[in-house]
């Protein structure tokens, strides 16, 4: 009996996307833990790459700040949501995850640089977490794809409580990174979108 090559190819493609998404999200998280071990071993030498607001020379730290944390507890708090949300985003392709994350990091970091309290230093992946959350939440509506709408609603049910972190309610927490990360994710849904009439890449597109 001749196998259905179309079905086999599609199943293989889906499996490949899942593996790629798992490698990307897992590799990203492994990098963050490696950097925190380096930071700890060097007496927090990497903390200098956090963002100090409204200093021209600090603009260059917008990108590296998103990969650094102030201790393992800080990193642990971001690890699971980052892993899950990055994996779901990467199911639409490695390029999609990279593009969305880049938009989020730049907008989140710019918000911190402009609005963070004077003499503060901000670092961490929580802005990216909020950005990926915002992206997954709205991309189905932007691309008009029912499966992605459903996925976004599930993400909202599981992680919707993080939205409180985008409000200035907790001292020592960068609501600026959270709020502008969320905004960056919504912007990314419009900037990094599937062209109309083109089949989506991955389960449900995006």
Explain this structure.
- With 206 residues, the protein is an all-alpha fold.
- It has one domain (5-191): Rhomboid-like (Rhomboid-like fold, Up-down Bundle), CATH 1.20.1540.10.
- The chain is built from 7 helices and no strands.
- It has helices spanning 5-41, 62-65, 72-90, 94-115, 126-143, 146-159, 175-191.
- Helix 4 crosses helix 5, helix 4 crosses helix 7 and helix 5 (126-143) runs parallel beside helix 7.
- The longest helix is centred in the N-terminal third of the chain and has 37 residues, at 5-41.
- The protein starts with a helix and ends in a 15-residue tail after the last helix.
- The relative contact order is 0.15.
- Mean pLDDT is 91; it is low at 199-206.
Radius of gyration: 18 Å
Number of domains: 1
Main β-sheet, in a few words?
Answer: none
Number of helices: 7
Mean pLDDT over the full residue set: 91
Instruction: Please write the CATH class name.
Output: Mainly Alpha
CATH H level: which superfamily?
Answer: Rhomboid-like
- Determine the fraction of residues in helical runs and give it as a percent range: 55-70%
Q: Cα distance, first to last residue?
A: 36 Å
> What would you call the shape?
globular
Structural class: mainly alpha
Return the CATH architecture: Up-down Bundle
Order of helices and strands: HHHHHHH
Give the percentage of residues in beta strands.
under 5%
Q: Report the CATH topology name.
A: Rhomboid-like fold
The tally of beta strands, per DSSP, is: 0
Uncertain runs are 199-206
């Amino acid at each position: 009996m001749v196998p259905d090559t179309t079905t086999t190819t599609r199943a293989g493609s889906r499996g490949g996307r899942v593996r790629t998404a798992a490698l990307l999200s897992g590799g990203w998280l492994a990098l963050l833990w490696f950097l925190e071990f380096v930071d700890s071993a060097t007496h927090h030498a990497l903390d200098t790459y956090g963002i100090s607001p409204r200093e021209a020379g600090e603009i260059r730290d917008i990108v590296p700040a998103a990969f650094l944390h102030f201790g393992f507890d800080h990193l642990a708090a971001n690890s699971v949501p980052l892993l899950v949300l990055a994996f779901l985003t990467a199911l639409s392709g490695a390029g999609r995850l990279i593009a969305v994350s880049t938009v989020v990091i730049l907008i989140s970091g710019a918000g911190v640089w402009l609005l963070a309290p004077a003499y503060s230093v901000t670092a961490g992946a929580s802005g990216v977490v909020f950005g990926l959350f915002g992206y997954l939440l709205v991309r189905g509506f932007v691309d008009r794809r029912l499966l992605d709408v459903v996925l976004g609603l599930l993400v909202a049910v599981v992680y919707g409580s993080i939205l409180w972190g985008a409000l200035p309610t907790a001292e020592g927490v960068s609501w600026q990174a959270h709020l502008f990360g969320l905004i960056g994710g919504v912007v990314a849904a419009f900037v990094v979108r599937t062209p109309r009439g083109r089949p989506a890449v991955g389960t449900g597109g995006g």
